[in-house]
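Curious: why this fold?
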Amino acid sequence: MSILGAVLSIATGVMILGFGLLLFYAWLPVFYGLVGLDLGLLLGRSLTGDIGFFAIVLGIAGAAILAGLAYVLEPYRRILIGISAGMLIGVSLASALGLDAPSGGFLGTALAIVFGVMGASVVPRYFDQFIIVSSAFAGAALVMAGANALFPGVGIFDRSQGAIVPTFLTLALAVAGIIWQMSNIAKWIQNRPRLENT
């Protein structure tokens, strides 16, 4: 990794470490808008055979609609993620315990439904905390990787050798990121719609 790559890794890691939740919500409408733009352009091309004025208008309209819907659909997307994750855990558990074959799949399906309902109720409640924790650890790992590339001879940054100091330094950075993001969570998501308000 070059010096520029190492510095970019550290800078990106610090941003993700300290502002992961804010970045998630700030970029969510952009991602939805890009999908809407793509859908509009594809629809326009399929209707007219070319990406001309009509396709571009449909693309812009699709981008505006999906970017606007990003906040409206957010609570429902969380529920669907919870259902999917819960059902995956239920099916995996049924398969690991051998419950899916003897009953013709009934017990596996029942376990998947139970875990799906549990996931639908748990994930929306703790989604922001999950984003905070995962972004803090990902950012800390990026900072350490960049620092190790920038200073390859310094053992304090080299986590690949299995030393305990770099591991604790990564954990300390992650904990600092979690504390920082948790202290600012109210400012960052105050305008996010909640399911009970819709």
